[in-house]
Amino acid sequence: MNARSANDVDRVRRFNRTVARRIGVLDERFLGRGRPFGESRVLFEIGRNGIEVRELRVRLGLDSGYASRILRALEGERLIETSTASGDARVRFASLTEKGRREWEEIDRRSDGVAKSILAPLDAKRRAELVVAMDRIERLLRASALAIAPEPADSAVARWCLQQYFDLLNERFAGGYDPENAQPADAHEFTAPKGIFLVARAAGEPVGCGALKTAGPELGEIKRVWVAENTRGLGIGQQLLGELEKASRSMGHTRIRLDTNKSLTEAQAMYLKNGYVEVPPFNDDPYPDHWFEKVLG
Hints:
This protein is 46% helix and 22% strand. It is of the alpha+beta class. The protein folds into two domains: 3-121, Winged helix-like DNA-binding domain superfamily/Winged helix DNA-binding domain (Arc Repressor Mutant, subunit A), CATH 1.10.10; 146-295, Gcn5-related N-acetyltransferase (GNAT) (Aminopeptidase), CATH 3.40.630.30. Helix 2 packs across helix 4. The longest helix is centred in the middle third of the chain and has 22 residues, at 98-119. The radius of gyration is 23 Å and the shape is globular.
C-alpha cells in the first residue's frame, strides 16, 4: 500500500469513528431505549409492513447466526413475531406486534431528534452543505457496496428490473415504448450456456441489470441494460458492461454487438468510450437508431 492509499484508509476510518460517535452507535442504550444499535436497526427495518427474514438479512448485510440471535431477542421482548410462509416452511416472515409498533414509532421519533441535533448547531449555509455532502456520501457508499451476479432471467427480481427498464424507455422515447413491438428476447436466450442475465445490487437492493445472448457463431449481443435513476453517475453501467463482455468472452464470442435509441445519449457515450464502433443496422427492430459492435480482445 502506497502513502496515498494509506492516507485514504486513515481518513475513511476517521470518518467512520466520527459518525459512530455522533449518532451514538456505541451506546448500549442506543437512542435511550435500552437496547443496542443492532436490535434497534433490525426492529426499524422490519417496519410496519413486516419483511421476509431472508430479505432483511440481505438488506442489512447480516449473517444468519447474528440475525437469528437478534430476532430471538426481539421475540423474547414480544416486539416481533416470526412465521413461515404458507406452502414453504423455508421462508420466514418477521412482523411487529402491537408492542413492537409502539416501539418502532418511538425509535422513529428519537431518530428524528438525533438528526435534528446534528443540524441544529449549524447555520443555514453549513446545514445545506452537510445535507448535500451526506447525499453524495450515501450514493458513493452504495456504489462501493455494489455486487453484480447472475440471476435467473425469469425470476421475480429479473422481471422487476425489466419492468423498470421498459418504463424508462417508455418515458424517454419520443413515441413511447411497447415491448410487444420490439425484437423478441425471451428468458431462455439469457440462460446458460447460450446467455446470461446479470443483476447489480447495492446493499441488497437491485439497482441495475443487463443481459447477454448468443446471436450467431462467436457473436454475442447485449440487451436490457438498465441502471436505477438514483444511482446513475456512479459507474454501475460501466461495471455491468464489463461483466457482460467478460461473460461473452467466456462463451467463446469474438465479437459483441448492441443497439440503442438516439434518446439514450449517456449509453451511446459509454459504448463509444469502451471501443464500440457504429455499424449498419443488423435487425429491423423499430426502436433503435444506432447499432454498435466491438471486437473482443
